[in-house]
Design goal:
Blueprint lengths: L22 H12 L4 H11 L4 H25 L6 H8 L2 H15 L2 H16 L5 H18 L1 H32 L20 H11 L19 H30 L11 H47 L6 H4 L10 H17 L2 H30 L5 H22 L4 H21 L14
C-alpha cells in the first residue's frame, strides 16, 4: 500500500486521500448509486414500451452493460486512481482524449444530484402539494454536501443505512405481491413466463429497444472506480466490486419488475410516471404506497444523490490536480483534516442547487444520457488501445478480454448513442466543442500533458 506523501510510477500522484474502503463498502456504494428502488422511476414506462416484459428489459440491459463493466474492471486494476474513465482513457489512449472523457463525465454526473432532487420534489408533490420544492432542493443538497465533505467513513455508514432501508422496503413489497398473486389469486394468479418471453413480440428491434431503455437504469455502476484512492488494495477490489454491483442490482430490478408484472399484467393502463406506485398501492394498500413515496423522496434525493456527488467531486479533484480545467488550484485541493476533495464537493453542491431549481427534468435526462453513453464508448476503446495494441496482449484468452468483449461493449453503447434526438446531440456536441477549446488552450495546442503523465 502507498504511504502518504509518496507516489508510484503507475499513478504519478502522492497518496492524499484516506484508504479505508473494502469490497463490501464499494459494492454498497455501487448499489446505492444505481438505486435498488429505481423501478419506481422507470418500470411503468419500460413495461409499456416492452409489451409487459419489463423483467426481460432489465435482463437485456444487464447483459448489455456487463461488457462495459468488464472494461472498467480491467482498467481499474491497471490504474487504481480516482479519476475513473477520465484517468483510464487519459492513460490507456491519449491524455487529451482523456480530458474530453472527463469533460463528458462532468456533463453526465455534475447535473445528476440536481436531477435526483428534482425527481424527489416531483414525488413529494403527490403527498404534500403545497410543500415548497426549492426548500427541499436546498436542504437535501446541503445534507449530502456536509456528509461528503466530512469524510468517506461517514458516507460509508450513511450508505449502509440507506441500503438497509431500501432492501427492507423491497422485501415488504415482494411479500405483499407474493400474497396478492399466489395466495389471494389476483393478477396472473400464479407464475407466468410472459414477463420474460412472448415469442410473437420478440425480435432484433425489440431487443435493441429494450437495451436502450434498460441500460439507462444501470448508469452509475462506474462511480465505484472514482473511489480507487480511498480503497484498500484497489487493484483487486475495485474491478470485482464494479461487476458484482452490476449483477446484484440487475437481479434486484428483475425481481421487483417480475412481481409487479404478475400483480398487474395489463401494462396498457399503467400511468407512465406513477404506474409502479399504483401497483404498490394495489398489493399493499395506502400505507405501503405513501411509505414508498416518502422513502423514495429520501432515498433518491439524499442517498442516491450523495454517492453521485461523491463520484463527480473525485473526478473534478482528479482533473484539478492535473491542472487541466479552470479553477484547478481550488478544485484539486484535499481538506487537511478530513482528507476529502472538499472544495470540489462544495462546488458540486452549489451547482446542484442551481440545476435543481432552474433546469427542467427533461433537459437534465437528455444531458445525462449523452455524457454517460459517450464516456462508456471511449472507455471500451481505451481497453482495446491500451491492452491489445499498445501492450500487445493477444493470447486467445486476451483476444476475448481485450478485444472482443470491449468491442461488443462499444457497439452496444454505440447503438444506444445513435438513438438520441436532435436537441440532445446539439447540447452534447456544443459541450464537447467547449471542452476541445479548453484542452487546446491548457495544453498549448495539444503539445503538453499533465506532469503526472510525463514519462509514463
Amino acid at each position: 500500500m502507498q504511504k502518504n506523501g509518496t507516489s508510484t510510477p503507475k499513478t504519478g500522484y502522492s497518496q492524499e486521500l484516506m484508504r479505508t474502503l473494502t469490497t463490501k463498502d464499494l459494492v454498497i456504494f455501487g448499489l446505492i448509486t444505481m438505486l435498488p428502488i429505481a423501478p419506481t422511476q422507470v418500470y411503468a414506462g419500460a413495461s409499456i414500451a416492452s409489451f409487459g416484459m419489463a423483467p426481460l428489459v432489465y435482463l437485456i440491459g444487464m447483459i448489455a452493460m456487463f461488457f462495459t463493466a468488464l472494461s472498467y474492471s480491467k482498467m481499474s486494476r491497471e490504474f487504481p486512481i480516482a479519476g475513473s474513465a477520465y484517468s483510464f482513457v487519459q492513460r490507456g489512449m491519449n491524455p487529451h482524449i482523456g480530458f474530453l472523457t472527463g469533460w463528458l463525465i462532468v456533463l453526465d454526473y455534475i447535473i445528476v444530484p440536481g436531477l435526483l432532487v428534482s425527481f424527489s420534489t416531483l414525488w413529494l408533490s403527490v403527498v404534500l402539494p403545497e410543500f415548497p420544492s426549492w426548500l427541499l432542493v436546498v436542504v437535501f443538497i446541503a445534507i449530502m454536501t456536509f456528509v461528503n465533505v466530512r469524510g468517506i467513513e461517514i458516507g460509508k455508514r450513511v450508505n449502509q443505512f440507506f441500503l438497509f432501508g431500501q432492501i427492507t422496503l423491497i422485501l415488504v413489497f415482494l411479500i405483499c405481491a407474493i400474497k396478492f398473486v399466489f395466495i389471494d389469486g389476483h393478477g396472473t394468479g400464479g407464475f407466468s413466463l410472459a414477463p420474460f418471453w412472448q415469442s410473437d413480440k420478440i425480435d432484433i428491434k425489440f431487443i435493441a429497444n429494450a437495451a436502450s431503455i434498460a441500460m439507462l437504469g444501470f448508469i452509475g455502476f462506474d462511480a465505484i472506480s472514482t473511489l480507487s484512492e480511498e480503497t484498500k488494495d484497489p487493484t483487486r477490489t475495485v474491478g470485482k466490486s464494479v461487476v458484482a454491483s452490476l449483477v446484484l442490482i440487475g437481479l434486484l430490478f428483475m425481481g421487483q419488475a417480475y412481481m409487479a408484472t404478475l400483480a398487474h399484467p395489463d401494462y396498457t393502463n399503467l400511468d407512465a410516471d406513477m404506474g409502479y406506485f399504483d401497483i404498490i398501492r394495489e398489493v399493499g394498500g395506502d400505507a405501503l404506497y405513501y411509505t414508498f413515496i416518502i422513502a423514495g423522496v429520501i432515498f433518491v434525493g439524499v442517498a442516491n444523490a450523495l454517492t453521485v456527488q461523491s463520484a463527480i467531486s473525485r473526478v473534478l479533484f482528479s482533473m484539478g490536480r492535473d491542472k487541466v480545467i479552470p479553477f484547478s488550484g481550488f478544485l484539486g485541493k484535499v481538506h487537511p483534516k478530513f482528507k476529502t476533495p472538499a472544495n470540489a464537493t462544495i462546488f458540486v453542491g452549489v451547482l446542484s442547487v442551481l440545476v435543481g431549481l432552474f433546469l427542467s427534468l427533461d433537459l437534465l435526462v437528455r444531458l445525462v444520457n449523452f455524457g454517460a453513453m459517450s464516456t462508456y464508448m471511449l472507455l471500451n476503446l481505451s481497453v482495446i488501445t491500451y491492452f491489445f495494441f499498445r501492450k500487445k496482449q493477444r493470447s486467445p484468452k486476451q483476444i476475448f478480454g481485450y478485444l472482443l468483449f470491449p468491442l461488443i461493449g462499444f457497439l452496444v453503447i454505440g447503438f444506444i448513442w445513435t438513438g438520441f434526438d436532435t436537441l440532445t446531440y446539439t447540447i452534447g456536441f456544443s459541450w464537447l466543442i467547449i471542452g476541445i477549446a479548453i484542452v487546446a488552450i491548457q495544453s498549448k495546442g495539444f503539445k503538453e500533458v499533465p506532469p503526472a503523465l510525463k514519462g509514463l
